[in-house]
């Protein structure tokens, strides 16, 4: 029997990691690192090693990556609501350290948690009825430092993947949109279109898990030029769409099972009646 892959998960005590961990624990030999070992609710996360990806000596980072098949990078520094330039630059630095250590240690693939905020600006013409779809082929247009940092580390991932640094690291970026159960009460005083935007961006926990696992497992993720680099939007099989997942269906056989239109049907009907 083939031994399970060794997967290093950064930001292991964070929210996204918490959604992924049940699936990852089942399938992989895990190394979990974070600067804290409790989640947002203050609960201990089993198996987390305290490790600062941003500050660790390059040798200890390389040692951490030794024997690792895939790194799932969900580590994220925040300065709270501000999400200013300095803290977001730290996220670019942290991700660069991950790519670099992965390359040095011969890691096969890095799968990064990114966000639709990399192209958030497109929601303006969407709300105006001027576009009805955004795909990863659209030029990234962030409208915050948070989104800008994601664009920066996504494109840095291409540099590590394309071979010009001497080796090719396989890199996937997952632009997660709305990985949470949507409550219409949160939109009581907001325009209907903001609510419907979240409905279109919804991704259920099991679809998020499926997408990440397929991004780890799919053998060939080369683009049409042969570069092992992909960007996918992370949404469920929603009837209302804006973020295209066509390429995720094609490249990694993503087959999301949930549809926000079904899951939140009653709430949607009430909200649409409200207008
Ligand atoms: N939660 C969402 O709604 C959402 C949506 C789209 C994309 N994302 C992306 O997913 C990623 C993870 O987000 P999250 O919501 O889980 O954030 P989070 O803040 O809940 O988790 C991030 C984790 O990274 C850890 N961390 C911070 N600095 C570190 C360091 N130097 N070394 C190691 N670990 C460190 C934190 O302690 C935290 O536990 C981010 O890149 C975020 O942009 C999240």
UniProtKB/TrEMBL annotation:
The keyword Nucleus belongs to this UniProt entry's keyword annotation: no
First-tier enzyme category under EC: isomerase
MF terms in GO: UDP-glucose 4-epimerase activity
Pfam families linked to this entry: Epimerase (PF01370)
Highest rank taxon of the organism: Bacteria
Gene3D superfamilies with a match to the protein in the record: NAD(P)-binding Rossmann-like Domain (3.40.50.720)
Signal peptide, first to last residue: none
Residue ranges of every copy of the NAD-dependent epimerase/dehydratase domain listed in the record: 7-156
UniProt cross-references to InterPro entries, sorted A to Z: Epimerase_deHydtase, NAD(P)-bd_dom_sf
Known EC number: 5.1.3.2
The keyword Transport appears for this protein: no
Keywords on record: Isomerase
Protein's name in the database: UDP-glucose 4-epimerase
Natural source organism: uncultured Propionibacteriaceae bacterium
């Amino acid at each position: 029997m083939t031994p399970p892959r060794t997967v290093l998960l950064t930001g292991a005590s964070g929210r996204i990691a918490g959604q992924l961990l049940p699936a990852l624990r089942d399938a992989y030999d895990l190394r979990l690192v974070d600067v804290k070992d409790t989640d947002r609710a203050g609960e201990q996360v089993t198996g987390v090693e305290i490790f600062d990806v941003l500050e660790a000596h390059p040798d200890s980072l390389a040692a951490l990556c030794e024997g690792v098949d895939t790194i799932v990078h969900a580590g994220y520094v925040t300065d709270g609501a501000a999400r200013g330039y300095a803290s977001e630059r730290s996220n670019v630095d942290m991700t660069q350290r991950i790519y670099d250590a992965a390359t040095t240690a011969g890691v096969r693939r890095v799968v990064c948690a990114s966000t639709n905020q990399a192209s958030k600006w497109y929601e303006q013409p969407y709300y105006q009825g001027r576009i009805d779809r955004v795909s990863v082929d659209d030029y990234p247009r962030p409208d915050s430092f948070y989104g800008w940092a994601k664009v920066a580390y996504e494109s840095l991932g291409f540099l590590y993947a394309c071979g010009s640094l001497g080796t090719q690291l396989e890199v996937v970026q997952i632009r997660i949109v709305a990985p949470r159960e949507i409550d219409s009460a949160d939109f009581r005083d907001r325009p209907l279109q903001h609510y419907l935007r979240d409905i279109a961006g919804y991704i259920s926990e099991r679809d998020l898990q499926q997408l990440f696992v397929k991004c780890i497992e799919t053998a060939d993720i080369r683009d049409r030029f042969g570069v092992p680099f992909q960007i996918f939007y992370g949404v469920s099989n929603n009837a209302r769409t804006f973020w295209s997942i066509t390429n995720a269906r094609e490249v990694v056989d993503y087959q999301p099972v949930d549809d926000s239109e079904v899951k939140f049907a009653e709430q949607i009907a009430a909200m649409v009646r409200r207008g």
